[in-house]
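Students often ask why we bother encoding 3D structure as a string. The short answer is that it lets us treat folding as translation between two languages. Here is a chain of 708 residues written in the first language.
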Amino acid sequence: MSQLVQAICPKCKMKLNIPRDWTDSPIRCKGCGQALKARGKAGATEASLPPARAVAAPPATAKAAAAPAPSALAEEDEGQSLMAQLRARRRRRFRINMIVAGVLLAALGIAALVYRQEISSAVTDFRAAIKKEERPSIASAPKEETKPEPTKDTRPPRNLAKPPPTVETSNGNAGGAPVEVKPTPATTTTARNLPGRALLVGIRNYLYVNPLNPGYRPDNSLTRDPLGLHHLKKVLVEGLRFEESQVVELSDVAAEKPHSPLKATVQATIRVFLEDSRPQDRVVLVFAGHAVEIEDQGYLVPLEGDFTKKEDLIPVSWLYEQLEKCKAHRKLLILDVAHLDPEQGLARSGSEKMGQKLEAQLRKVPDGVQVWLSCSGEEHSYEFASSGFIGSVFMHFLQDFARDLSDPKKRREIEKEPGFAEETLPLLYFAPKVNKEVTDYVKNRWNAVQTPKLLGVSAKAPDVAADAPPPPPIKVVEPLGSEPLADAKLIDELVHEIGLNELGSQSLPPFFAKALEPYQTPADQDSSPEKHPLRMVTLEAVKRLQDIEKRFNAEKGIKAEANDAQFKKSIEQKQQQPAKLNQELEEIMEKMEAAAGDREKDTKRWQAHFDYVFTQMLARRIAIMEYNFVLGNKLRKDSPMVMNPQNNGWLIVPQERLQQKDTRDWEKKRQEILDRIIKEHPGTPWEIIARRDKSTYLGLTIQEAKVD
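And here it is in the second language, the structure alphabet:
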């Protein structure tokens, strides 16, 4: 076995152990890769061989690969040769690297499972953005104004054409005739920095009319801002530099503290907000929800608003009176009303177009007030569930353009544009851009018309002392009557007891404590179930309904397939589950009907629970059978064609009409029981929920759309 000699690399000074047989042969340093030739001293013994002098050799003469490898090496302390140790070290490194890679892959796999919905949504939104970027712009800006800059902004592309120097508005005092608003002389920075105050009012989950659909499917979203008001608040604070305490959201889906936007609350909060505003303030009031015209008057619809009862609505005339009395010099009212998502259909009535009489009334703008409408008469403010937008199309582009003010680089570019320096409320500088972008998008997306408008004329900014005190913080005002209200915990307990976990005290109007006194019976069904058969069958039905809801795989989106036979076969497979679930519901209903004889023996609380849960059983049977009918008759029997190239399938959406005799009979019975609940339990949560359910559409149909 060859002995080892020591050498030192002249380049990296690393000590090398070299087999004696390799002396005078070209080698390479394992530390730095330098080519060497070790030369031993003559007469040296193997036992005490001094370090050999390492001489650098030119790389061209190195032929280590051709030299025969020694058959054996000297063993180290561990009893292994040097080459064996090197091979073992490489194997250990390989195993460690494989273990680390396996752990990383497992972690990525677990993360993908946990966040699969968010990842799917992000990929969908990214693909949509790519497709929109590939689509040619409808109105391009001049070439010198459209130099691309590298950016990570993934927002949907938009028109960047500059607005004209004038804005077409309408002055109500001039009989609605178009008025040209000329740019005011350049203002000082003091006018731009005057205090800003904003109240953002929005209602999504209406009790009796169609809810506002967000611009995305709620189960496939990362934003959780259905109305776009939270993003608008951020724009006002960061872009327009409003104080955070001076921007408040009054909404049932507010990001921080949701409130019930009831008529009394909305009116009281608006009144105090406008009364507290001073001449130097810039005021922004936003309303996102429904509006309706009754006879010759227009109304805004609060949470509990019913289109048939104008006493439950907020008159537009009252709102204009409050704005006219407000002392603020700059007053902007943004109305995002007449909402419709054509891809999602109608769950209830209430998504009508803006009436011509309503628009005519809105055109009569008080002096010193500007009104920005999301659409014009006989038009909708559109939302699209597959757009990925935040809120309606109008609200999306409004906050999307204004968000550029939050970016220092983009803000500097905007400040160079003509007309911006003269605008003391920069949000309105984007009005022409937003209006055009909304119109173009809706035209391309749905071949529909939506024409936002800016009405009215602004007033001149006053001279304000530099040491003027700040305005008072904005607060939500909830009027309290003289009669005590029921505890919110009791309301939550009642609605959750019958499986309505999505509802609660924040989604319902307040109730008087006296009206709910007869319903505070303790739920003691567990202590002696044999004494309360009605309660037991009711709670069992609630549990079974929740279980069926989880198992019912009702796909709302159906993708088209090129192979018609394969498409029909897949639809036929989807029809198997509804038939089984309908049989389960029928068995539960038979048990409830058998227990109905004990109804009068129980308390009012459980009588109301029993009746309402039975209507839920009927509603679920109707929904399942209508779903099965749509699959079989609308899709499988006569397979439709996708007409719009932007779409790839159909959504199953609500409609008022029921298409089967059995479901129409069940609906008639359901309506009768709901009427009984309203009559027997006035002033209670059951009355409100029953009234809501009476106006809910249970029919289904298909709507061509883009399916994820």
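Translate back mentally: The chain has a mean pLDDT of 80. Keep this in mind for the problem set.
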